[in-house]
Specification:
The structure holds 2 protein chains of 2 kinds.
Chain A lengths: L1 H13 L1 H30 L6 H15 L3 H25 L6 H40 L1 H7 L4 H37 L6 H11 L2 H20 L18 H24 L1
Helix pairs in contact in A: 3-7, 4-5, 4-7, 5-7, 5-8, 5-9, 5-10, 7-9, 9-10
Chain B lengths: L13 H26 L6 E8 L10 E4 L2 E11 L5 E8 L11 E6 L6 E5 L12 E9 H23 L4 H17 L3 H7 L2 H47 L4 H10 L6 H34 L3 H32 L12
Parallel strand pairs in B: 1-7, 2-6, 5-7
Antiparallel strand pairs in B: 1-4, 2-3, 3-4, 5-6
Helix pairs in contact in B: 3-4, 5-7, 5-8, 7-8
Classes of the chains: A mainly alpha, B alpha/beta.
């Protein structure tokens, strides 16, 4: 009986009358997500969030978002940076254009590739499992229980995860960028200090105000998407609570949004 | 409590570790900001150099200005001046400003790859340092822009060459004239023909030369003839002298016959008187011959005069000689002992 209902539900969803409603439902769903994000931002800016009582929860989430990820991420980003730096340097040298290698490296690696990598890494290693955890808490009714017990599930459970996600993305972007810059210097000049002035000058030339602003905004938006979307309501079902079986769909949406921001940043930088 | 889920083990020193992570994050962030500001030159004390270029294409803020291959400044601002030129404002750190002197030259070079590069050259490092805000014109060397200019120049050159070598070009006409002149030089009239240009004039000149030559030859012959005539006259005079005045000459004989002891008769006195007249005439003739001789000698110097007088002189001399001969014949005829040397006395 239950199964028959389910099939009927599926058939109903394929009916043309529902197709006409789909864009509206889609928009309503994303509106719910945006409302959730705005709520989280307001909470994050509110002073009451950082009361002493809340701090331990926030710290625990910060720790959970960064500490387990750090070793794996450092190794992975170092390897990736090494390979890309080597490829770019050798290619530039073979064309006799080694003076442009540093420029290309800073632009592609530090400004474009590493923030993208960090966003995906944090999403997969921290935000998605965290979102699944929240979904299971919703399914179990833990959040409602907490609400009834006088707590605030948004402030006590969801906001620390969002803050941790944002923090993890920003920290790892900074870390990976610093590592990539250091490795680039070592690969070009070796373990000497004489090239520091020229290197710094070249890096400074790439980081003009517009590029720096775009990088900061991009990193911040990445971190917000990565931190909020996995625990936000599911936009596909009119803002219904996330169900565990929809994890892949949520990941797809996350990738799409991250790519959209990446494309926008590329347009801002190079158009 | 929901804030301590059952499945996660408690983290030791959670708060301290989290603070450390936060601190690390803050350090990273501030370090990144500081490094970027340093890299952008925010902490440098700079002075400005304004470069004026007619074209700032490819330049962007932040590009470096190099001196001997080392960056000594960066472009701070690019603006369009009221004259329509590009004003490139270069920020040069005080530490590097001493490389720029009042005699420094700035160039902007564009390669085929990459943007233009601004380079500074200082020939005399002892010149006074470049003041803050100094304006300098930038010399532009653009490899890509040179190509169309070069092609235009080459085209102009080829056009000029074409104009030079065309059928009606002045150079071609000059060459043709030169060739004609060379042909004339090699021709029968030679340089004279070239100089006179006119064929008739040249022919006249050569004719004149030929005539002068012939005239000279004739003058030569005339002088020789006059010479011969003079010598002949000389010989004739000598002969006449010897015949008339010699010891066995006519005079001596006549003297002897006239003044001889045999004496002459009365009719012979008239003859003697006649003879005296004849002798005086002869003397006159001889004087004339002398003058002729002098004139004949002067002929060498004045041939033309001689040639005019020579005919009359000659006839005169011949007349005189005939007279002398006639006289001699007369004497011989009148003189009885001429046929018979012995005078027979009665």
């Amino acid at each position: 009986m239950n199964r028959r209902d389910h099939i009927a539900d599926q058939l109903l969803q394929l009916a043309p009358v529902h197709w006409s409603q789909t864009p509206v439902r889609w928009l309503m769903g994303w509106w719910q997500v945006a409302l959730f994000g705005a709520e989280m931002l307001v909470l994050a800016l509110a002073g009451s969030t950082y009361r002493r009582k809340q701090r331990s929860v926030i710290y625990r989430q910060l720790y959970a978002a960064t500490a387990p990820l750090l070793p794996g991420f450092v190794v992975m980003s170092a390897l990736l940076s090494l390979v890309i730096i080597r490829i770019v340097l050798v290619t530039a040298q073979s064309y006799g254009l080694s003076q442009y290698a540093l420029d290309v490296l800073v632009r592609t690696l530090v400004i474009e590739l590493l923030p993208l990598l960090v966003a995906l890494f944090v999403a997969l290693r921290f935000a998605m499992p965290s979102g699944a955890e929240v979904a299971s808490m919703r399914e179990r009714g833990d959040l409602i229980e907490l609400w009834r017990a006088g707590g605030d599930p948004a402030r006590d459970e969801l906001l620390p995860r969002v803050l941790a996600g944002v923090f993890a993305v920003v920290l790892l972007v900074l870390l990976s960028a610093a590592m990539a810059l250091l490795m680039t210097y070592v690969m070009i000049y070796g373990f000497t200090s004489w090239g520091f002035a020229a290197y710094t000058r070249a890096v400074g030339q790439v980081f003009n105000p517009a590029a720096t602003l775009i990088l900061c905004m991009k990193t911040f938006l990445f971190s917000l998407i990565v931190a909020i979307l996995p625990i936000a309501p599911n936009p596909q079902y009119g803002g219904a609570t996330l169900r565990q079986r929809d994890e892949i769909g949520q990941l797809g949406r996350l990738f799409t949004l991250i790519l959209l921001i990446e494309v926008l940043s590329l347009i801002g930088n190079y158009y | 409590m929901a804030d301590s889920p059952d499945n996660t083990p408690p983290v030791p020193h959670l708060e301290r570790t989290a603070r450390l992570v936060l601190l690390a994050m803050l350090l990273l962030l501030s370090g990144a900001i500081a490094y970027l500001m340093f890299a952008r030159g925010a902490f440098e004390r700079t002075q400005q150099v304004v470069l004026i270029a007619d074209d700032a294409e490819g330049l962007s803020v932040g590009m470096t200005v190099t001196f001997s291959g080392f960056p000594i400044g960066r472009i701070g601002r690019i603006a369009l001046s009221p004259e329509g030129n590009a004003r490139i404002i270069i920020d040069v750190p005080h530490t590097d400003a001493h490389w720029l002197r009042t005699s420094s030259v700035f160039t902007m070079e564009s390669g085929f790859v990459g943007g233009p590069r601004i380079r500074a050259f200082t020939g005399v490092l002892t010149d006074p340092p470049l003041p803050d805000g100094a304006e300098r014109k930038v010399l532009r060397g653009d490899a890509a822009a040179e190509i169309p200019r070069m092609i235009a120049s080459v085209r102009e050159l080829v056009n000029n060459l074409g104009a030079l070598t065309s059928q009606d070009a002045p150079l071609n006409a000059s060459l043709r004239n030169l060739q004609t002149m060379a042909e004339k030089l090699n021709g029968p009239r030679g340089a004279i023909g070239v100089l006179l240009g006119n064929e008739a004039d040249a022919r006249r000149l050569s004719l004149m030369l030929e005539r002068s030559n012939a005239l000279l030859a004739r003058l030569d012959g005339l002088v020789l003839k006059a010479d011969g005539l003079a010598t002949r006259t000389d010989g004739m005079m000598a002969r006449a002298d010897s015949q008339v005045l010699g010891p066995d000459g006519m005079l001596a004989r006549a003297d002897a016959q006239v003044l001889g002891p045999q004496g002459l008769v009365t009719e012979t006195r008239a003859t003697v008187v006649q003879l005296n007249g004849l002798l005086a005439e002869t003397r006159n003739s001889l004087k004339k011959v002398d003058a002729v001789l002098i004139e004949a000698q002067a002929i060498g110097a004045n041939t033309r005069d001689a040639t005019t007088d020579l005919g009359s002189l000659r006839s005169e001399v011949e007349a005189s000689l005939r007279k002398v001969e006639h006289l001699i014949n007369e004497i011989n005829r009148k003189w009885p002992f001429a046929r018979d040397a012995q005078i027979k006395l009665p």
